[in-house]
Structure formats: structure tokens, C-alpha cells
Amino acid sequence: MDGKMLARLGAVVFIAIAVTATAIDMARKDEPSASPPAPTLQPPADPLRENLRHCQQLGEAAASDADCLAAWAESRDRFLGRDRSGAR
User: CA 78, 74, 53 angle in degrees (round to 5)?
Assistant: First the structure.
């Protein structure tokens, strides 16, 4: 057997295997998994986050709202790692 014939035979065998694997995969029925789906993890509700969302919806009026100013100060302190309970 010469090299060309061996290469053609290898290509035909490879294609036959690929077609067979594809046919088997298409014929297989998808079975639903027996295990229940994993519960989604919800972070605990953060009142500061909700307050900041409200301030975001207020738009420009939030700049004069005392609750929004306090929420922004708390958010800034939390970000900077400042302790709000201590004296300034």
C-alpha cells in the first residue's frame, strides 16, 4: 500500500467514525436530571442599597434630600472603611 492510499483510507475511517458518533448523539434522548436544581443564592437585603437606588431615581432632586445625603455619606464611609460609631 502506498502513502496516498493509506491517507485516503485513514480519512474515510475518520469520517465514518465522526458520522457514527453524530448519529448516536442525535438519537440519544435527553433525560431530565434526577437531582433537583441548585438553589440560587440571594444576598441579604441591604437597606442602604435600596436607599441609594431611590436616590438614583430622584435624579437632581436627590442633591437636596437629607436622606440621600446621609445615604451617600454612609456609602462613602463604608467604601473607605471608616468606622461610623467612633467619634470624629
Answer: 105
Which residues have C-beta within 8 Å of that of residue 5, sequence separation ≥ 6?
none
Would you say 84 and 73 are in contact if contact means Cβ atoms under 8 Å apart?
A: no
pLDDT tens for each residue of 3-18: 899 999 999 999 999 9
pLDDT by residue (tens digit) across 23-48? 998 888 776 666 777 778 887 888 99
Amino acid letter, 23 = A
pTM for the model: 0.46
Q: Exposure pattern of 9-29 as b/e (b: 16+ CB <10 Å)?
A: eeeeeeeeeeeeeeeeeeeee
Residue with cell 496516498: 4
